[in-house]
């Protein structure tokens, strides 16, 4: 039997991978990018709503990760702003019909 792949070593490796994944700011960066795109696309109502909700969801998931908390909060703010702007433009389009 080999002592290189003991159960303890495998558990330790899995724990290290999980910790590294939680400390990764990649999800926060993705949420921030989607939030920025949502604000830019918000004059097109349906795109603003879809991307705004996506930014809120990604930000909500990544806010619990310490490395990405600040970016996640900014992304959630941008997602909310995109929803407000998209709703404004939707109402404006309905009023002009």
Write a brief caption for the model.
The chain is mainly alpha-helical. It is 79% helix and 0% strand.
Structure explained in plain terms:
- With 97 residues, this protein is an all-alpha fold.
- It has one domain (25-95).
- Helix content is 79%, strand content 0%.
- It is built from four helices and no strands.
- It has helices at residues 7-22, 26-41, 45-62, 69-95.
- α2 packs parallel to α4 (69-95) and α3 runs antiparallel to α4 (69-95).
- The termini are far apart.
- The mean pLDDT is 87.
Q: How many DSSP helices?
A: 4
Specify the oligomeric state.
single chain
Question: How much of the residues is beta strand, in percent?
Answer: under 5%
Shape: rod-shaped
Q: Summarize model confidence as the mean pLDDT.
A: 87
- Counting helices, strands and paired strands, the structural category is mainly alpha
* Count of β-strands: 0
N/C terminus separation = 78 Å
The major beta sheet can be summarized as: none
For the CA atoms, what is the radius of gyration? 20 Å
Query: H/E element string?
Result: HHHH
The low-confidence runs, each spanning 5 or more residues with pLDDT under 50, are none
Share of helix, binned: over 70%
Number of domains: 1
């Amino acid at each position: 039997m080999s002592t290189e792949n003991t159960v303890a070593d495998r558990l330790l490796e899995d724990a290290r991978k999980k910790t590294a994944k939680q400390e990764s700011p990649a999800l926060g960066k993705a949420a921030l990018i989607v939030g920025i795109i949502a604000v830019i696309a918000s004059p097109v109502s349906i795109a603003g709503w879809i991307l705004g909700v996506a930014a809120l969801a990604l930000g909500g998931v990544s806010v619990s990760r310490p490395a990405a908390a600040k970016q996640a909060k900014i992304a959630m703010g941008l997602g909310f702003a995109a929803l407000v702007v998209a709703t404004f433009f939707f109402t404006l389009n309905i009023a002009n019909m």
